[in-house]
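Might I ask for a little of your time on a matter of protein folding? The record follows directly beneath this note:
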Amino acid sequence: MDLLKVGKFISEKRKEKKLTQLELAQKLCISEKTVSKWECGKGFPDTSLILPLCEVLGLNANELLSGKTIKDDKEYKETAENNLVELKNTNQRLTKNLLNLEYFIIAEIVLILLTACCVISYVSLPLVWKIVIMGFAVLNTIIGYIFAIQIETKAGFYKCEHCQHKYIPSYKSSSFSMHMGRTKYLKCPKCNKRSWQKKVID
């Protein structure tokens, strides 16, 4: 998706409607700065704003995603197919980035815990400082774990080995299931059978 092209298109349609950036922002209940970012190609409307934005500017979603006015049915169909492919590819890239971030968070948790353990074991410090250091490491672990679990339950799906059903597990089942890397021993909500299930992103 060409964000610069889409941003220019939003700007053109806004001006056609004789709206300022502030007026458009007020209609969508967002900040003027957000509209400015869209028009400069530095961002794209959140999915919850696409339809309201289209309604205000008198567009359809395909036109917004393409950054141009679509004139006939054939072009509309081709554009819709291209936009679906582009959205799928973008979603896969974002999912991969989130999963990589999860690995980074886990590595950071382990590094800080090991460092804290080494410091309190081998460095001569007052007891209060050892407690502070260990407390920081434990707090970091809890916060990191919460973020990692959120990513785990939002990025990608788990695929049942029995019925091939793809689903997102609950926080509880994701947290307490046995796992090896990106494979977890889970109960499928569709067939109710347990199996080792792999993480898939599409």
